[in-house]
Design a protein that fits this description.
The chain has 854 residues and is an alpha+beta fold. The protein has 19 helices and 29 strands. Strands 12, 13, 14, 15, 17, 22, 23, 28 and 29 form a nine-stranded mixed sheet that branches. A four-stranded antiparallel sheet has the order 1-2-3-9, with helices on one face. Helix 4 links the parallel strand 12 and strand 13.
C-alpha cells in the first residue's frame, strides 16, 4: 500500500471510529436519562418561555404579595439558552404593564448576567450589576440602577457587616450599605470598578413595555473572555463548560416598603433590584455555554489557512470537529487581497488554502516581483464553494416619538422594520447629512441638506412610521469597518448600479434638493471600479468653544471606523459607536472622550456588517431595494434567488452577483465564499488535509445549528450542485491521475511549513474538541429521503437548527434493552478504529519521508 493510500485509510479509520464512539455514547446517555429530564419549557430548540407566576426555580409566588397582581400575567422568552458564546440573545415579553412615559419611573424590566453553581440559581452577590451609563441617572429613580442599599427601606433585607461599605477615613462612623459583588473564585467586594464599568457591563438597566404589554431587548451574553469575573464557558474540573444565568427582575409600581411610587415626591420607584424584596420577583434562565480557551490536542499535524471575515464564523465553528481528523487547522482572518496574494506567493509559510469571494486575477498585481509570485497556471489554482452569506445593514432604533404621535403608547420600544435604498446608503457613506460632518456642515451645499437621515423625505417615503420620530433623532452615522474587502466592493457595485444613487454620486441633487458632500463628489466614486473600502475624506474639524484647543475633533472622532464587521455589530448592540466628541480637560493629557452609550428609548444605530454577525448579536437588518424595485430582506429564499441568478466570472466555477440584473425576490448583497487551493504547490499531506476539510465543510458543516461543528446562523447552506463541485475538488486533491494532468511535470518544491507573521492577520486559535460537536465524516453520506409503506417517518427537523431531532428511543426514559449490548460492542470497535487510525497515519508519514530521501 502506498503512503498516500495508507494515510487515507488511517484518516478514514480515525473519523469512523470517532463517529461510532460519539453516537454510541449519546445513545447510552440518552437511554439512561430520566423521563422529563429535558426542560419542559424547551420547544425543540434552546429558546425558553417562562411565566412569572410559574417560576419554579425561585419558588412558588405568594398570591397575597403586593406585587402579585402587577406581575402575574408576565411571560418572558429568551431566544437561546444553549451553545452560547459572546453573542446577543433576544429577551421578549408579554403581559406586562406599560412603562411610564418619559422616565423609567414604573413598570419596566431589568436584565443581568450572573454566575452561580447552585440549581436554585444565583444570589444577588453573583450578578454583574451596578455600573449603569451615568447619563441614565436622570431617567431612573433613586438607586434603581445601583447596588446601593438604604437601611430600613426593605424589611426583608439584612443590613449587617457583610453589606456594610467600608467607611471613609474622614468619617469612620458612617454606616452605608450595598450588595457586595463576589467574582467567581474570589472574595466579596463593594467596589465593582475593578471588574466591570459602564463601558464593559452588559446589564440592561431599563427595558420598556409598550401599551400592549409587550416589549423586547437584545441582551449581550458575555463569556469568560469578556467577563472573567463571571467565568461563563470556562472549562471546569470535569471538563464541562461553566454554566451561568440570565436574570430578569421586573419592576412595578411599589417600593420595597409597599409605598406606591406615585405617592412619593419623585413619582418613581426606588431601590436596587438586588434588594431582597425586589430580588424575590426575579425570573432566572439557565445559560449553557460552548467551551472556550483551549486548543486541539498537542502533537497534531497543523495546516495553516487564511480567509476573509465572512468565512470566519463558519471556520471557528468547524475547527473543534476538524480536530478529530488528527490535523489542527489554524485559521487567520485576513483581507481578500492578502488571501489571494498568499495563494500565489512563493515565500515559505504562505498558505496554499485561502477563502475568498473573488478569484485570483490572471495577471499578477502591479509591482509584484516575479520571485515572490507564481504564475496562476503554475500553482494549479482551483476553486470550490464553501459558504454563502450576505452583507447587511444592521440597526437598533428605538421609537423616540413626538408627544403628538398617535403611537405614543409605543414610545421607547424598538422599531422592527427598516427599508433602505441605494441612494440613502450612498448619502450615509459620503457624509452628506449635516450631522455626519464635524460642526454640522457649515458650507454650501451641506447647509441646505437634511440634518440627518431621519429628516430626509426619501427615508420617510420608504418608512412612514419614522415620520413620528422627534426631529433630533439621528444615527451616529453608518458604522463601517476599516480596510478593503470584496464584500465592500459588492456593496459599492449595488450602489453604482442604481441610476438614482449613481446620479447622486456624480453630483446631481435628489428630488428634494439634497446634494452629495463636495469632498466626495471630487473622488469620482461612481466610476471607480476598484472601490472596495469606505473613505472618510471630509477633513472638517470643530471645537465647541475657545477652551478647547484647535483644531478640535475631526471626522474620525465623530464617525470612527470599527475594527471589523463583527465589531460593528457589537457596537450596534451596545448602542455605542465610540464617537469621541466630549472634551475632558481633567484627563491626562486632556483629550476628547466618548459620551457613552445612547440612552434606552433614544437609541439609533446603523452598521454595515455580515448577516452572521447580525444574527449572532440579535440585531434586526434592513430590507434593501434591489434592481427589480423590491424591498427585500436577507433570508434563505432571497439569498437562494440571488445565488441562482449569479453570472459566471472568467474563472471556471466562480460566479458573482450582477447588481444591475432585475431578479425578483433576490437579496442584492448575497455572496459566495470560495476555497481557493494552490493544488500544485501543496505536498501530499497538505492535499489530504485540504480534502478532509472540504468534505467536512459540505457534509456535516452544512447542517445548521448553534453547536460547535455546525453551520452558524446567517449562512445559507450550499445547493447539491455546489456540494458536488466541492467534493470534486476534494477528489482531485487525492487523485494521482488528475494531479499529473493538472500540475507541471517538475513542480516547485513544496514550501517549508514555517509560519511567518502576517501583519493584517487576526489569528484564531482552534478550540479543543467539543464533546457535543459532530465528528468529521470520512466521506459524504447524503442519501435522498425515502419512505416505504409501513416505515417510520423521518424525524422532523429542528426549526432553528435544521438538524433532525433523534428518534424517540434515544430521547425518552425507556432503556435500549438488548440493543445496549450491541451499542457497547460497536463503541469498542469504534474506539479501536479511532486508536489505530493515527498510528497508520504516522506510519504513512514515515514511509513518505523515506521515499522522498531516496
Amino acid at each position: 500500500m502506498t503512503p498516500q493510500r495508507l494515510r487515507r485509510f488511517g484518516a478514514w479509520l480515525t473519523a469512523t471510529g470517532t463517529l461510532v464512539v460519539a453516537l454510541g455514547a449519546g445513545m447510552l446517555a440518552a437511554a439512561g436519562a430520566p423521563a422529563g429530564a429535558a426542560d419542559r419549557t424547551q420547544t425543540g430548540s434552546s429558546h425558553v418561555v417562562q411565566a412569572w407566576s410559574d417560576a419554579s426555580v425561585v419558588g412558588t409566588r405568594d398570591s397575597s404579595d403586593d406585587d402579585y397582581a402587577t406581575f402575574r400575567d408576565l411571560e418572558v422568552t429568551v431566544s437561546q439558552t444553549r451553545d452560547l458564546t459572546h453573542q446577543g440573545v433576544v429577551v421578549s415579553w408579554s403581559g406586562g404593564r406599560p412603562t411610564s412615559a418619559g422616565r423609567f419611573a414604573t413598570n419596566f424590566l431589568q436584565v443581568m448576567q450572573c454566575w452561580g453553581d447552585e440549581a436554585s440559581g444565583p444570589t444577588p452577590e453573583q450578578c454583574q450589576w451596578g455600573a449603569p451609563n451615568p447619563a441614565l441617572s436622570s431617567l431612573l429613580g433613586d438607586r434603581v440602577g445601583l447596588r446601593t442599599l438604604k437601611a430600613g427601606e426593605d424589611e426583608r433585607q439584612a443590613y449587617d457587616a457583610a453589606h456594610q461599605v467600608p467607611p471613609p477615613i474622614t468619617n469612620p462612623n458612617l454606616k452605608a450599605y450595598a450588595m457586595p459583588f463576589t467574582p467567581v473564585g474570589g472574595t466579596p467586594v463593594t467596589d465593582v470598578a475593578d471588574y466591570f464599568t459602564p463601558t464593559s457591563t452588559n446589564e440592561i438597566t431599563g427595558a420598556r413595555t409598550g401599551d400592549d404589554g409587550t416589549g423586547a431587548a437584545t441582551f449581550e451574553v458575555q463569556t469568560a473572555l469578556e467577563a472573567p469575573h463571571l467565568g461563563c464557558g470556562e472549562a471546569r474540573g470535569s471538563g464541562a463548560a461553566r454554566a451561568c444565568w440570565l436574570v430578569v427582575v421586573p419592576r412595578g409600581e411599589l417600593l420595597a416598603d409597599g409605598t406606591f411610587a406615585q405617592d412619593t415626591p419623585s413619582g418613581a420607584i426606588a431601590g436596587s433590584p438586588l434588594s431582597a424584596s425586589n430580588w424575590a420577583n426575579r425570573m432566572v434562565f439557565p445559560l449553557q455555554f460552548s467551551a472556550i480557551g483551549s486548543s486541539c490536542p498537542m502533537g497534531s499535524a497543523e495546516q495553516r489557512l487564511v480567509g476573509n471575515e465572512l468565512f470566519s464564523a463558519a471556520m471557528t465553528s468547524w475547527q473543534p470537529a476538524l480536530c478529530r481528523t488528527g490535523t489542527t487547522f489554524g485559521f487567520s482572518q485576513v483581507g481578500d487581497d492578502e488571501a489571494r496574494a498568499q495563494l500565489v506567493c512563493t515565500v515559505p509559510g504562505a498558505s496554499g488554502f485561502a477563502v475568498v469571494n473573488e478569484p485570483v486575477p490572471s495577471e499578477p498585481p502591479a509591482g509584484a516581483e516575479d520571485s515572490v509570485v507564481d504564475p496562476v497556471e503554475d500553482t494549479g489554482l482551483r476553486y470550490a464553494p464553501l459558504a454563502q452569506g450576505a452583507i447587511v445593514i444592521a440597526f437598533q432604533i428605538d421609537r423616540a416619538l413626538r408627544a403628538d404621535s398617535p403611537d405614543i403608547g409605543r414610545a421607547g420600544t424598538p422599531v422592527e422594520d427598516l427599508v433602505l435604498n441605494a441612494r440613502l446608503v450612498a448619502k450615509l457613506l459620503t457624509q452628506s447629512y449635516r450631522a455626519d460632518v464635524p460642526g454640522g456642515g457649515t458650507t454650501a451645499p451641506l447647509t441646505t441638506n437634511p440634518r440627518s437621515i431621519v429628516n430626509d423625505p426619501e427615508l420617510v417615503a420608504l418608512n412612514p412610521e419614522l415620520a413620528q420620530l422627534v426631529a433630533t433623532a439621528a444615527p451616529e452615522g453608518l458604522l463601517v469597518s476599516i480596510g478593503s474587502s470584496d464584500a465592500y466592493a459588492q456593496l459599492w457595485r449595488w450602489i453604482v448600479a442604481d441610476p438614482f444613487a449613481r446620479a447622486f454620486l456624480q453630483g446631481e441633487p435628489d428630488e428634494y434638493g439634497m446634494r452629495i458632500n463636495p469632498v466626495y463628489a471630487a473622488l469620482d466614486l461612481a466610476d471607480d471600479t476598484s472601490l472596495d473600502s469606505f473613505p472618510k475624506s471630509d477633513l472638517s474639524t470643530y471645537r465647541q468653544d475657545e477652551t478647547v484647543p484647535a483644531p478640535g475633533y475631526g471626522t474620525l472622532d465623530l464617525r470612527p471606523y470599527t475594527q471589523d464587521m463583527a465589531d460593528a455589530a457589537v457596537r450596534v448592540q451596545r448602542a455605542n459607536a465610540g464617537a469621541k466628541v466630549v472634551w475632558e480637560p481633567n484627563k491626562v493629557p486632556p483629550s476628547f472622550v466618548s459620551s457613552g452609550a445612547q440612552l434606552p428609548g433614544q437609541r439609533f444605530e446603523l452598521a454595515v456588517t455580515d448577516l452572521t454577525s447580525a444574527q449572532r448579536y440579535g440585531l434586526r437588518t434592513a430590507r434593501l431595494v434591489n434592481a427589480a424595485g423590491q424591498a427585500v430582506g436577507a433570508d434563505d429564499t432571497s439569498m437562494r434567488a440571488a445565488v441562482d441568478a449569479m453570472v459566471p466570472t472568467p474563472v471556471e466555477g466562480v460566479v458573482r452577483t450582477d447588481p444591475g440584473t432585475r431578479v425578483l425576490g433576490a437579496y442584492p448583497l448575497t455572496l459566495v465564499e470560495y476555497a481557493g487551493v494552490a493544488v500544485c504547490r501543496a505536498d501530499d499531506e497538505q492535499r489530504g488535509d485540504y480534502a478532509s476539510l472540504l468534505r467536512y465543510a459540505v457534509t456535516t458543516g452544512q447542517q445548521r445549528g448553534d453547536a460547535k461543528g455546525l453551520l452558524p446562523r446567517g449562512y445559507l447552506p450550499l445547493s447539491e450542485r455546489d456540494v458536488q463541485r466541492t467534493l470534486d475538488l476534494a477528489e482531485t486533491l487525492e487523485d494521482d491521475a488528475q494531479l499529473a494532468q493538472l500540475c507541471p511535470a517538475e513542480p516547485r518544491p513544496a514550501p517549508t511549513p514555517t509560519p511567518t507573521p502576517t501583519p493584517t492577520a487576526t489569528p484564531t486559535t482552534a478550540p479543543a474538541p467539543d464533546p457535543a460537536a459532530p465528528a468529521a465524516p470520512p466521506a459524504p453520506v447524503r442519501p435522498a429521503p425515502t419512505s416505504t409503506p409501513g416505515s417510520t417517518p423521518a424525524p422532523a427537523a429542528d426549526p432553528d437548527t435544521g438538524v433532525a431531532e433523534p428518534d424517540a428511543p434515544l430521547t425518552g426514559a425507556a432503556p435500549l434493552g438488548a440493543a445496549r449490548l450491541a451499542v457497547t460492542g460497536s463503541m469498542g470497535l469504534g474506539a479501536a478504529c479511532a486508536l489505530t487510525g493515527p498510528v497508520l497515519m504516522r506510519r504513512a508519514r514515515v514511509l513518505a519521508a523515506r521515499e522522498s530521501s531516496h
